[in-house]
Write a structure and sequence with these properties.
Number of helices: 4
Radius of gyration: 19 Å
Shape: extended
Number of strands: 2
Largest sheet: 2 strands, antiparallel
Order of helices and strands: HEEHHH
Helix content: over 70%
Strand content: under 5%
Distance between the termini: 36 Å
Length: 124
């Protein structure tokens, strides 16, 4: 059963993702142009523009938030402990955000030892 509150949250998060990606794309457009990346980093292969992110990120956000909502509804019907599940999801989100920040800092300062081994860190 879909509640009004979860739909509003889903719309809000998807709107924030859309706003962020389009502000990034417009910043690129008005400064150096929107970047494109060649498949396998080979010039003879086609390039994929970052404009695709403007379509893909909001759509994927909407789909994944819908899947999260379905999982919560299924677990709520079984256990009646949604509060703990929200805390668990928030905790995992914070851990993922922390890892993303570490990867960005390592990439910026060219510390490849961390970037090369981050997959092993995530497995632990």
């Amino acid at each position: 059963m879909k509640s009004q509150n979860t739909t509003k949250i889903k719309i809000l998060i998807t709107g924030i993702v859309s706003l962020l990606i389009f502000s990034f794309l417009f910043w690129d457009y008005f400064h150096d142009g929107v970047a494109s990346h060649h498949i396998l980093n080979k010039k003879e292969l086609p390039a994929i523009s970052n404009w695709w992110g403007g379509i893909l990120l909001p759509v994927l956000s909407w789909i994944l938030l819908g899947r999260i909502e379905k999982r919560f509804n299924k677990q709520f019907a079984q256990k009646q402990r949604v509060g703990k599940q929200y805390r668990k999801v928030f905790r995992l989100f914070i851990i993922g955000l922390f890892c993303a920040i570490l990867i960005a800092i390592s990439f910026t300062y060219k510390y490849t030892l961390f970037i090369d081994n981050v997959i092993y860190l995530l497995l632990i």
